Amino acid sequence: MDKGVKRLSILNMVLAVALMSFVFIVGPTVNILETFLQNTGSYLNNIVERTFNLQAYSRSDWIGNWTLFIFGWTIAWAPFVGLFIAKISR
Questions:
Q1: Are 53 and 68 in contact (CB under 8 A)?
Q2: Sign of torsion, CA 50 53 58 59?
Q3: How large is the angle between the packed helices 2-26 and 29-45, nearest 10 degrees?
Q4: How far is CA 38 from CA 31, 32, 34, in A?
Q5: Which of 4, 7, 29, 57 is the most exposed place for a label (fewest CB within 10 A)?
Q6: Nearest to 68, CA basis, from 52, 48, 46
Q7: How far apart (Å, rounded) are the C-alpha atoms in residues 42 and 68?
Q8: Measuring CA to CA, how many Å separate 15 from each of 1, 8, 27, 67?
Q9: pLDDT digits (tens, 9 = 90+) for 34-79
Q10: Cβ of 67: how many Cβ atoms within 10 Å?
Q11: How many CA atoms lie within 13 A of 15 on its CB side?
Q12: Which ranges of the chain would DSSP assign to H, the alpha helix?
């Protein structure tokens, strides 16, 4: 059972890298790189503002109101998820 799951995991990773490489080579490579850099820069530029924006003075959709909650929830559950993954990996 362990060897089969390991082989499936390795096969999955090989297929994922092959698909990513194929799309990168055959697809619009320059557009992919420009979009990646633009979005990474936008994220890093606005991370503090978007993290602590509670929309106190203007109402918007649900996701706009819960940015800080999602950030806190992720930090709070990270140790439990890490322990769970470590336990089942053993």
A1: yes
A2: positive
A3: 110
A4: 10, 10, 6
A5: 57
A6: 52
A7: 18
A8: 21, 10, 17, 34
A9: 999 999 999 899 888 877 776 677 766 666 556 677 778 888 999 9
A10: 16
A11: 6
A12: 2-26, 29-45, 47-51, 62-65, 67-89
**Distances in Å between the alpha carbon of 72 and those of 9, 42, 82?**
31, 21, 16
Query: Which tokens belong to 10?
Result: 């390795």
Going by C-beta distance under 8 Å and a sequence separation of 6 or more, which residues neighbour residue 71?
Answer: 51
pTM: predicted TM-score of the whole model, two decimal places: 0.52
For residue 90, give the 3-state DSSP assignment: coil
